[in-house]
Write a sequence for this structure.
């Protein structure tokens, strides 16, 4: 009913290790310009600015991860993956880098490593709802519906307004022939504002 969505990590919160990297006002300005360039789709400009900053602060795991995001946005997944690996070398508990590695491995159809990367992300950030969601998507595509449901439930626990988790979990219950739980999930997704699911419920006479 809906295409599986891989959520791109866009959080700009400074991680603990990056917080230890002292930045001058000039350096922060370069980072801000790079983030802005990436946001509007000027990925090459963003990468150039990140590289300029990293020449002076090569150990800044957060910014290495940001540069990886720009390569990811360019669909240069192998290069993005190298950035995330380097970010993890600088700070092994960089949950965002592990998460983004999971996205790259998924794009490269390396599902085993994708699962490992997402599992590492939630190991270092137990409330990483997007990582749980993506794990749910992987196991759903592997037809392991019960395992997928477990991950969607975790995603919902940490992000209770995530309609997509309810939609995909409902689809899993449908595959398991548990119509009541399927409808419960779809109704919750509709309640959270998922218009497609709301219309499906109406079209199939389940909107009461």
């Amino acid at each position: 009913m809906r295409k599986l969505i891989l959520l791109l990590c866009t959080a700009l919160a400074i991680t603990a290790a990056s917080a230890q990297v002292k930045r001058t006002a000039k350096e922060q300005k370069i980072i801000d310009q790079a983030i802005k360039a990436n946001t509007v789709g000027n990925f090459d400009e963003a990468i150039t600015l990140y590289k300029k900053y990293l020449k002076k602060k090569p150990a800044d795991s957060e910014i290495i991860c940001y540069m990886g995001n720009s390569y990811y946005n360019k669909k240069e997944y192998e290069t993005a993956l190298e950035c995330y690996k380097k970010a993890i070398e600088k700070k092994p508990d960089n949950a965002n880098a592990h998460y983004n590695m999971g996205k790259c491995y998924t794009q490269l159809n390396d599902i085993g490593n994708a699962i490992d990367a997402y599992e590492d992300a939630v190991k270092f950030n137990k409330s990483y709802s997007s990582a749980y969601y993506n794990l749910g998507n992987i196991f759903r595509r592997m037809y392991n519906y019960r395992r997928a449901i477990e991950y969607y439930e975790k995603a919902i626990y940490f992000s209770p307004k995530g309609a997509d988790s309810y939609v995909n979990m409902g689809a899993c219950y449908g595959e398991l022939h548990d119509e009541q739980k399927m409808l419960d999930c779809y109704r919750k997704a509709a309640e959270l504002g998922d218009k497609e699911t709301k219309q499906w419920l109406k079209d199939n006479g389940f909107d009461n």
Q: What stands out?
A: Residues 137 and 168 are 8 Å apart (CA to CA).
